Amino acid sequence: MKQKKSVFIFFLFLIIVSCGKKNDLSSIFGQITEVHCKEIVIDDLLSNPSDLITIDGNIIFSDYVDDKIIAIYNIKEKKITHRIFTEGQGPNEFLPTPLTLEVDNKQKTINVLQRQYGIYTQYKLADLLNENIVPFNKFDFGRIDKITETHNGFIAAGSYSNGSIGIYDRNATLKNIEDIYPSYFSNSENIENKYRIGQGQIHFNKEMQIFVFGSSLTGEIKFFNVLNTYELKLIHSYSVGNSSFSNRMENNPDNTPIMETDIYHCVNICSSKECIYILYCGEQFMNRSSAKHSYILKFDSKGKALNCYKTDYQLISICVNDKEQVYGSSISEALDPVFVEIDM
After folding, report:
1. For the chain, is the Cβ count within 10 Å smaller at the N or the C terminus?
2. Taking all residues of the chain, what is their mean pLDDT, rounded to a whole number?
3. Containing domain of residue 200, as a range?
4. Whole-model pTM?
5. Which residues contact 65 (CB under 8 A, 6 or more apart)?
């Protein structure tokens, strides 16, 4: 009898382990390639460079130094050539809120979202290089958290009444709301709670006409086509890690706790003409600040997984040019903020 009981417990253990086995990066990409990050010498002060974008041999990023909040670094000249924009409530100033930067390499434009306020402004690169900070377009999207420009308008992320993704036309008129939350979110009626758990990074590539979502907490990565009817058509999806939010949302659907042991997944998304790159953390929140590496996930224009790279620096943000050269911001061993060139 004891032997039968032991066998039963053993098989029960196997079932539990099998059900709890996480869909890790190696199961999606196969081999994980370790890559080196080479520090870029910058003879200038950096504070906390983030939201990197690259255009015409420049890296543009958020960085609060000397009362300026956006900097332009010229890769060839190896120096910061411009620091622009100040915080304030006057004309062409930014309110004190985190920024999200986006670039259109074809149109040579820089787009800036003042998060929490939903103010979205567009600038010509040539104007910024001449220190003309007057936008050629300005929209008020209200309470949105993220935004990306598409081929026929904009896509924003936020706590909408019946979804997490708002699709707008070129005049910033809301045309459709899409619910791309995991199915177990249906148990929750708390809009803010759903977005808090289901939020993530968004990106649209105009060359491929593909929309990408990478979740921060639930481990989902999704690729969509954006139809002319302002609807999303899912073409590829992945689930990374073993998320326990399904059980937690069932037990506490309207005030779901976030724990120190939860994994922080997608950090930011960028793309070249041919490939999409996702900066992925993969560390528990309690270990995030001490992590010594990050992952860069590479996908093709249809969302097919191509390569997974493990860096020897923890990266804060990445950008990529059309020659597939990836740059990142990080913290050096001396605890100084640095730029790195990633050998991929």
Report:
1. N
2. 90
3. 27-90+149-342
4. 0.91
5. 45, 46, 47, 71, 83
